[in-house]
Task: structure prediction
Amino acid sequence: MSSSQIYEQHYRRLDASIPLRAQRWIPIAREGLKALFSLRAYLALISIAWLPVFVRLVQVYFTTRFPEARRVVPVDDKLFFDFLAQQLPWMLLMSAYAGAGLIANDMRTGGLLLYLSRPLTLVDYIFGKVMILFVSLSMVTMVPGLVLFFGARSLAPDVLGAASHLLLVPKIVAMALALVLPTTALVLVMSALARSARFAGLGFFFVFVGSTVAHAIAWRATRSAYAGLISIQATMRRVGEAIFGVKPTRMTADLPPEYAFAVLALLFLGCLFVLKTRVRAVEIVK
Amino acid sequence: MTSETLSLATRPLWPATKDVLLISIERMLPRPRSFWVFLLLSLPVAFGALLRIYPPPGLPLTGFELYGMVIALFFVRNLLPLVALLFGSALISDAVDSKTLTYFLTRPISRLSIFLGEFLAYLVTVLTLTVPCVVVTYLVLCAATPQGAGFGAPDLVQDLAACALTLFTYGAVFALLGVSLKRPLIPGLLFLFVWEGFVANFPGDAPNYTLTAYARSLIRHRPAEEGLAELFSKFFGVGESVLVLGFVGVVSLALAIWIFSRREYVISS
Amino acid sequence: MTPRVVFKKASRWYGPVMALNDVSFELGPGVYGLLGPNGAGKSSLLKLACGQLRPSQGTVELLGRPAFGSPEVFHSVGLCSDTDALFEDFTGFQFVCALLSLNGFGSIQASRLATEVIETVDLKDAMHRKVGGYSKGMRQRIKLAQALAHKPEVLFLDEPLTGMDPQNRKRISDLMKRLGDEGRTVLVSTHILHELEQVTRRVLLIHNGRVLAEGDLGEIRDLLDRHPRSVRLRARDPRGLARELVLLPDLVSLTLEDASGHLLAEIRKPDAFFARVQELSVACGVEEMWVTDENLESVFSYLVSK
Amino acid sequence: MNRSRRLILTAAAVSALGITFSFSARVTGTARAAVGPVPPEALALPADSAVVMGFDVRALTGSQFYAKFGGEGEPGRVEALAEIERKTGLNPARDIDSVVVAVRPQTEDPKSAEPALDGVRRHRPENALVFVTGRFDAARLEASIPETGKASKERRDGVTIYREASGKSNGAVALLDAGILVAGDTASVDTFLANRASGRGIRDNAALVSLLESVEPGSTFWAVGGPSVLSRVTSEIGGPAANLPAIKQVVAYGHLDPEVGMTATAEAADAKSATKIADVLRGFSALLSLQAGQKAELAQIADSISVATEDDKVHVKATITHELIDSLKKSAGSHVRTHKGVAPDENEIQ
Result:
């Protein structure tokens, strides 16, 4: 019996000699944001979302002229908490507008393959996309929140001028992060799961609104504060309430903020994990 | 090849509509998006089952009251308008996006047939997804309770009609958005959450100009309002609500058909 | 016989962009080629012809009726568009049957016609597979099948051979020829000249939205051959290569670019030139070759400038 | 098209099965379905109700009868309704669908039964519970309550309860949901709410249920009464009725279109008593006929009333056409005009 050489056939790792650049996600984020900022509708959405800042600033100015008005509309931590909480609908709309197509479009058109045929890793790609949405959502939450703070501080130095009030800056940033990070991750997961941007955007709304309504029903049925854990909105609000130290709403009054924070953190990490496993350049057709 | 072509006349409306309907249902219903929507719509079933298996101590509501909350808050007020936005706004624009509209436009059928067929397919699809979820939710929450499953049977049928009307009206409105705008999602969401969400709970006559105020009036056994809605929400008679929703739906459909019939769709590679 | 497709001074613009400018022609039975470079206005012309667009000016008639807003003509018209769009979740058979049902055929008749046309385009083995899983060539063929299935009198085929292998190209080209011979009107758009040569000699030349010429393909071929084409070459031994190429009879000029080491040749008979380069490739170390103007664009520029 | 067809058929089958199951549960009585004209939601009315009556306001306002006669009204009444609407946002004709009233016998409460200042011990009116379905503007209703007395608001298990706390009376109003309102004395309202939570109620009173089930479906107005209250009614009315034999139970119902029709069946103690009651009624009818000379319409009314006995039961049927009511109204109007400033004739039927 004669024997012949059998070659083991397998894929071999390519040892690229040129090291990868350090901040490889930057071009993805930069180009994505550039494309968004060139859209009039995007700018319009941001502009509308900034209107409440001016309304609040007028409110603060009013209280400096008529200090007795502060009894009705006090300039305190709650002002900034309420402001951020009220920015939520704009953040959701921005998520659907700017985030729904971020991955879905790439996966539908094969654009992902183009990205990954460059010296980029999947993590770079995802991080770049996360940054696009993070910046967009911060533009309607954190940035206006900080502008409101510094604007209010300069308008009412007697109320917000003390150095201790500078603590509001990390508070605003922390609550904005609690709003923006889980939302960013969730929108990107929906975008990765759906092939159409429209479906991704609506899917995100389905999950967000669905969890809020489910909470409303569960709360009415059980009157248990822990029902709040099923609502993304309620957990965000509870975390915000804890950060700013404001009185919680009756639906979540007894919900420990640590639990709410844990839910948001789990949501964020879970979404990142799904993103990592789901985003593939090549779809296996069975 | 012998010519088997038919005489040169546009096909009659209903047979053509039926053929479009059959194709469109097949393209709408057995799709992953329908599956996900069905999963979301059947959440109350899981919720109800959980409550029945592990009833929380001192549950203050009867099964029928819980069902009332689910149908009013979950279905009619929130999820069904979203379902209508998802499927309704996609009616023609999905075919434009997927570039398959040309297949319909190059057949001997009127554009009215195409639109009606697609809209009927939408209705069949969303009702196929919604109706079993509502019925099963009702059974899970009400069967074998002191009141029994028969207690609210007429309400169940009335609620199904309310769901159908809600889906019809919102679907028509979003179909109108879909044929008029390139990106109907954000305007649709603005309509649902800014207009419908806030204005329905404004004082005075403001709720008269929202659809949700009429849709929620259709649920006779709705739960008591809470929060802002408790102060301001307005309810209308069933007849008035049906009339208004029907009227808005029909007018939106007519407008959508008019726009679709006149519009050119430039579909290119 | 009355012409089936009639363009009378038809123009079409999208906003400020003119896609088609004052086009007039008539098509009777037979196969016609619509030839033009990318962006010439071929697709717009086809869309106007099959009623997907309204002419901004002038008229377009299909089977004696205005093409836009006359859905009844589609009993006798088929379109294979250039978009790669199908009902992805349908099988090939279901896809063709569904569209036949829209033409008013009952299910039995639709099944028969669908099977027949699927055999014609050689997709019988894959007819019960989802079109979402079809290869590019198969997708193209099923698109063609739906356009042919109801046996239309007028067929508009937009780039019908894209993505097909040579065997199927031949099969479909033969089919188009046969349809023309049967007395149907077939308008085939393409930017690849030799694809047309296999099917028809009657062509409409379109460029920048204007019909430049309407006539026999042979004349256009001649025009092309009279128009010298430029070829750029890079070789290890450019001087040696130049020495050999100068001997070719149809060479118009040969330039050696010292700075880059490239050779620039202007030729009249490209086939002979390419064969010779092939022979010399090893000896002279030909590394790269670009045909700098072998696209229709340059031919048309040439025609326009004439 | 097989996949979608399968899905549609499955959905249809599940839905049809579910609906059929619900309705069969209703029919076979395993469920708390409506009892006669009493809607399921009102079944929590106290089991000890002696008289239950109801009015289908929707049917009334939609009737030709209402179209003919309902629009007219004394200016004072219209103003009063407008005032109610202004305060509560409630327009009864528009917002109320149906009303069910349950009258309970007075509970023996020593405090409430104390003699009045004049030392005479009087019968207090029966406890009554009014169950209303319709559309209520909760916010305006609430706003209107403090104007009429001191009221406390309480929310319990999704139900808003307003209790009058003035001390003069002990009324309560409960807004069960946006479509159901229950009002009455505090004890009855509490009983209703407790029944609602426990699933008890009017079904526990088998006698009343059988009476309710004999009401003709679709009646615009109806009333049933059991012995506990009725036995006292005749004696308390006084006058000629005091001599009537006691009525054990009564079922009455009627409609308004195309003519006003009413059917009442009273059950007396025995056949003899029944005949006596019938005779009194026939006498009343004869009295009307006698006055036909003065008013022709009275004869028509007398003709429209038929009285029959069947063992211990008395059946009374009356049918009055809209035209007859119209002419009665007209003649009454002219009569009042003729005798301006003079008290109406004692024979006049208002």
User: Anything to note?
Assistant: The radius of gyration of chain A is 23 Å. Residues 25-278 of chain A form one domain.
